[in-house]
Design goal:
Its main location: membrane. InterPro entries: L-PG_synthase/AglD. It is found in: Cell membrane. This is Flippase-like domain-containing protein. It holds the Pfam family LPG_synthase_TM. There is one protein chain. The protein is mainly alpha-helical. It is built from 13 helices and no strands. The mean pLDDT is 83. The protein has one domain. α10 crosses α13.
């Protein structure tokens, strides 16, 4: 993680030097403590709303844990965001196994439906923002459609089970693993009701729009107001694009997409580079920081529950 943070800093240092490091640094210095606090607060809104969604999913699954425990698991998992494909966040399943005595296959639907809800919310936000903004982002429609399709597949037990079965028949590999995945897919039925879908989608939309609004405010404060919907579209598309690369935390892909799209909108490097650096620090790295604080608490609590 420290290596990734170092590469993140070096990358932005190189871009800042290319675009005029004094001007870039001046853009950062002009932000007040109150403005930075507002950016962190909006990110915290996202994490808390999604944490509440995680708790609701856990309750729906029948997980016998308190809201505090569920929130601890959700936030602690952020410490492992900077892993390829974010697979490190599966550490939440280990805590659930220790505290509730559930095997991984029983808690797997919780992870699947949480990720699907994020994809659905971000896909919808991107589609709406694109339709209401004055800009066009090449490939954005495809990314939005891909996110929505993936969310539908993951939350449709029959469809997901069919795809798993077809994959097994095509490869013939790891029969036990495919059997467990099919079992987890069938458990998704309890998340397919209208109240659950509506509630989870509302929380996800509110959370991700809060971070998109933070990016909009940041651009305005740096004198680069491109409009709310354009700012939200760039933020969500870049986040999704970074995730599609499979890189730890989407680092590299998300930043490159954000800077490139801001440039297409006429924003010079001395503004786009610091704006991208600040929003990534107040979103991705802020989440990792929270996760690092909560992680040892979650680990200690889970070990205590086992004893």
């Amino acid at each position: 993680m420290l290596l990734l943070l170092g590469l993140f800093a070096l990358g932005f240092l190189g871009l800042a030097l290319a675009g005029g490091w004094k001007e870039s640094w001046q853009q950062v210095l002009q932000l007040s403590a109150l403005q930075l606090s507002a950016l962190f607060a909006l990110s915290l809104v996202n994490y808390l709303f999604r944490g509440v969604r995680w708790h609701l999913f856990a309750r729906r699954l029948g997980l016998p844990l308190t809201p505090v425990a569920n929130m601890r698991h959700f936030l602690g998992g952020f410490a492992m965001t900077a892993t390829p494909g974010r697979v490190g966040e599966l550490v939440r399943m280990r805590w659930i196994s220790r505290e509730a005595g559930w095997p991984f296959t029983r808690s797997a639907p919780l992870v699947l439906v949480d990720r699907a809800s994020d994809l659905a919310a971000m896909g919808l936000i991107l589609a709406v923002a694109l339709s209401l903004s004055a800009m066009g982002i090449k490939g954005a429609v495809s990314v939005a459609v891909l996110a929505l399709v993936a969310s539908v597949v993951v939350t449709r037990p029959a469809l997901l089970t069919l795809l798993v079965t077809l994959c097994y028949r095509a490869t013939g590999w790891l029969p036990r693993l495919f059997a467990r995945i099919r079992s987890a897919a069938r458990s998704l039925r309890q998340f397919s009701t209208l109240p659950v879908i509506a509630g989870s989608l509302t929380l996800g939309l509110a959370g991700w729009v809060a971070e998109g609004y933070a990016f909009h405010l940041l651009l305005m404060w740096m004198g680069a107001d491109i409009g709310f919907f354009s700012a939200v579209a760039i933020f969500v598309f870049s986040t999704l694009a970074g995730g599609l690369t499979g890189a730890p935390g989407g680092v590299g892909g998300a930043e490159a997409a954000m800077i490139a799209l801001l440039k297409l909108h006429g924003i010079p490097l001395e503004v786009s580079v610091p704006a991208t650096a600040v929003i990534r620090v107040t979103t991705l790295w802020f989440a990792i920081g929270i996760g690092l604080l909560v992680f040892p608490l979650a680990e200690r609590a889970s070990l205590k529950a086992m004893s």
